[in-house]
Amino acid sequence: MTDSTPVRPPRHRGIYLLPNLVTTGAMFAGFYAIVVSIGGDYSSAAIAVFVAALLDGMDGRVARLTGTQSEFGVQYDSLSDLVSFGLAPSLVMYTWSLSTLKDYGPTWGKIGWAAAFIYAACAALRLARFNTQVGVIDKRYFQGLASPAAAAVCMSFVWSMDKFGIIGEEVCFITPVMAVVVGLLMVSRFRYYSFKSLPMSEGRVPFLWIIVAVLVLVPFFIDPPRVLFVVFTLYLLSGPVMTLWGRATRRRRRSVA
Question: Is 0.70 surpassed by the pTM of this model?
Answer without folding.
Answer: yes
